[in-house]
Backbone:
């Protein structure tokens, strides 16, 4: 078994996992990454693949990705590539990974030119989401994970959105029963969307609500300044605003979303960025077609559509929700 | 369109291809690799992916792999990875690529630890095999391609094997009609095998007849000393010998294969290699299961099976056909 983890998760939960794995009697080769998105890069991918080659991994080896989205994306990408594909299991240790990145089979790394520009569709054979692992998660990261939970309301389930408005205080207390319900519903929605469109020919794109603006914020401000979930929170406010201005959506979407994000401990006003840079970064988004930027917009709560919008209107929405 | 080629092919055939592509009116971004297997590596893959990112490639870009197996494997692997998968077209310019590597969707690069340890299954949307391109191929490379043509006889089609024994002189003259027949039958057999087993769970492995020995020769002697097809030719003789000793196959298989390879301009005696190293390299083969080496053997001409054999017997076959 090929265990991949990071320097934060291993000291907290590594011993417990290794004790479980020891019961199988199979040898475990561990590769421990430094923590952080900065390490989801070409060099880490190379080191991991060469480590497996040195360790004598073969086609029957199984990869265990034990960490957050960075570990899952990188280990999944390496699993997809090593000998043209090893089986892998996701054991997500962050809320973000439990409700989003561990489900759906997207793997990848960042290039200097952009996030997730290199990767693969490679489904895990299993995802083991243990909410007990979330107890050690820092407050800020937990809140960032809530952004992706909140996302599923506007795009697919208005009842879930209303339920979250009531359940948010208990979620922030990490009440395990409430948390399990939120994780389960999030995974159900994601699985249904991905099941309909694994390769993102169409409907899968709705999972990127808030991400076109969010990715531009992350890249423009420098990776690491905002957590991914924080950028998505800000991006969702901008995309809700654009839904209102471009499609005439009820402006209550914007105010309810802002209120819920605030209770979740998330930012709702973005740091200022140069508009020309902002637009250029959005144009580099994978959903673009021949330079035309398309956004996931919400005509009504619980529904999402991929819609092109004028640059000026998009930038006005950015400005309306920036410092 | 994203054209990938090498420094040998572009001066010979690049202008003609670009003139054709210009008719489409779509811009072409060209990436030209140095020639040779040594460049099918991690660094070339990185350079190519970053070049596409800089060039503003998007999901709708189409990759054209214009060259031999190295270009096809590398460009295909990059196409599989860029934005999690671009469409790509193979335009193979060597005989080896026309009858083998361009068909079947295997892509990959080498690691220092072994050949094709990193890669992906990514089918081209089309393969354009123009026998006119083969006229400029050096004699030695052309012969190396014939090794993979010859392979299809023993593993799948005894009539084709007999036909090749008669047709070989015309093939070596590069008679276009004879060549077209040989390429077509080779691709038919390969497509049928791959169609039955894309991911090499079982029958696809028979396409590796001669390759377990051959890969060990290539790696042990240092890549570049033998062409891949030459190593496969030597490996087929050894595998035929092992078929005879281990399964009692008619020894005429060995002598007919040797005669045909000789007429094709291929070597039939391997340079000497240390047996311990030879065995160690074969054990690293992707077909190995828990260190047990399995070989593609020929119980009768036109049939192939994956069979484990004792190390001593395999090494005796190596010795019998080495200097």
Residues:
């Amino acid at each position: 078994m090929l265990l991949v983890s990071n320097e934060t998760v291993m000291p907290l939960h590594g011993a417990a996992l290794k004790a479980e794995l020891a019961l199988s009697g199979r040898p475990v080769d561990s590769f421990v990454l430094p923590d952080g998105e900065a390490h989801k890069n070409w060099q880490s991918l190379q080191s991991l693949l060469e480590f497996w080659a040195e360790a004598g991994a073969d086609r029957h080896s199984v990869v265990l990705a034990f960490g957050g989205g960075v570990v899952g994306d990188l280990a999944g990408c390496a699993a997809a590539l090593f000998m043209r594909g090893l089986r892998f299991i996701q054991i997500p240790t962050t809320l973000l990974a439990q409700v989003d990145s561990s489900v759906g089979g997207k793997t990848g790394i960042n290039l200097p030119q952009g996030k997730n520009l290199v990767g693969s569709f490679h489904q895990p054979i299993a995802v083991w989401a243990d909410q007990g692992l979330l107890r050690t998660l820092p407050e800020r990261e937990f809140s960032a994970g809530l952004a992706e939970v909140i996302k599923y309301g506007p795009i697919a389930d208005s009842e879930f959105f209303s339920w979250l408005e009531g359940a948010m205080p208990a979620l922030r207390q990490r009440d395990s029963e409430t948390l399990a319900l939120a994780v389960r519903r999030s995974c159900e929605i994601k699985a249904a969307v991905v099941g309909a469109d694994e390769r993102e020919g169409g409907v899968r794109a709705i999972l990127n609500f808030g991400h076109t603006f969010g990715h531009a914020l992350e890249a423009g401000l420098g990776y690491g300044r905002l957590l991914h979930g924080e950028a998505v929170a800000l991006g969702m406010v901008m995309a809700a605003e654009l839904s209102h201005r471009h499609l005439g959506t009820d402006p209550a979407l914007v105010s309810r979303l802002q209120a819920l994000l605030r209770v979740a401990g998330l930012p709702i006003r973005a740091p200022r960025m140069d508009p020309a840079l902002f637009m250029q970064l959005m144009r580099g988004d994978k959903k673009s077609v021949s330079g035309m930027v398309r956004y996931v917009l919400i005509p009504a709560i619980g529904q999402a559509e991929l819609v092109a919008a004028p640059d000026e209107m998009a930038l006005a929405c950015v400005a309306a929700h920036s410092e």
Notes: Residues 176-196 of chain B form the longest helix (21 residues). Residues 36 and 70 of chain B are 7 Å apart (CA to CA). Chain B has twelve helices and nine strands. The radius of gyration of chain B is 19 Å.
